[in-house]
Amino acid sequence: MTLTVRRQGLVDYAATYAAMVRFTDARGADCADELWLLQHPPVFTLGLNADPSHLLDAGAIPVVKVDRGGQVTYHGPGQLVAYALLDLQRRRLGVRALVSALEAAVIATLARYGIEAATRPKAPGVYVDGAKIASLGLRVRRNCCYHGLALNVDMDLAPFARINPCGFPELRVTRLADLAGPVDLEAVSVELESALRERLGD
């Protein structure tokens, strides 16, 4: 099955979100699946059923309400975002299996840098020594998914102090650069792409 990868650089969140929705609405049975690898300027996003009280102090950072699952998270430069626009029926993937595949791809990518990571029951994402390094949020419509995962590579973590990340007060967050030393985001994206292709059946 074809998986078209689009590397988009630093792009506006709201415009990208609208593009994902348009892509999903317009796709037909023959539409190839896509993986978008990118970064966003600073933005807080609130999931479909997010509790606004978990957004403690947005300050000057924009807030966007979206239709993914999950609570509040932060995106900013130096964070690698991977949006998976997939036909789940064609790939014979259930939502739980997709989440596991995305998490496993992040864990495999981190292992390439000598980092041991793990998942948590009932708390989607990837963690290193209890600190969250990657978050996940998905939306499924017409058997197709969009949104995806965000891996903290070498970003400013300070804005996470303005939220309860993913709805968990005092949840620590971390980044790859603090665990493995200087890292190149594009090199990480190549590793993540390979890990995702392997686990999504491409």
Write a concise keyword list for the protein shown above.
202 residues, 6-stranded mixed sheet, 3-stranded mixed sheet, 5 helices, globular
Description:
With 202 residues, this protein is an alpha+beta fold. Helix content is 28%, strand content 29%. The chain contains five helices and nine strands. Strands 1-2-6-9-8-7 form a six-stranded mixed beta sheet, with helices on both faces. A three-stranded mixed beta sheet has the order 4-3-5, with no helix packed on it. α1 (13-26) links the parallel β1 (3-10) and β2 (33-39). The mean pLDDT is 95.
The number of distinct structural domains comes to 1
Rounded to the nearest angstrom, the distance between the terminal CA atoms is 5 Å
Report strand %.
25-35%
The share of residues in helices is 25-40%
The number of helical elements comes to 5
C-alpha geometry: globular
The arrangement of helices and strands along the chain is EHEEEEEHHEEEHH
Mean pLDDT: 95
Oligomer: single chain
Structural class: alpha+beta
Largest sheet: 6 strands, mixed
Number of strands: 9
List the helices and strands and how they pair.
Blueprint: E1 3-10, H1 13-26, E2 33-39, E3 43-46, E4 63-65, E5 72-75, E6 79-87, H2 88-91, H3 95-111, E7 126-128, E8 131-141, E9 144-152, H4 176-180, H5 185-200
Outline of the structure:
Helices cover 28% and strands 29% of the residues.
